[in-house]
Amino acid sequence: MDDHYVVPDFTYCEAWGLVFVDGPHHKQPLQRQLDARKREELDEAGYNVIVFADDTSEWDAVFTEFRWLFGDGHADPAGLARAAD
User: Fold this and answer.
1) Which among 9, 24, 38, 75 is most buried, taking Cβ atoms within 10 Å?
2) What is the pLDDT of residues 39-84, one digit of tens each?
3) Integer Cα distance of 73 and 7 in angstroms
């Protein structure tokens, strides 16, 4: 990853997973072009590039696609809903 000059928001070393959480500035044309080029190079180098866009409505699809990395998840993993009753 050092050769690609990127700073992912999260890294899963064993899975070669790089997670990017894109804020609104990633919608700018120049930034979109730079992101696309860098991420394509990372993909070609064998990394699993995972992008969470500014639009959070798309996040469920990302979690589903990369379920093998993030797990299946649970709506209430610690029983917190019952504790609030």
Assistant:
1) 38
2) 999 999 999 999 999 999 999 999 999 999 998 876 655 555 555 4
3) 26
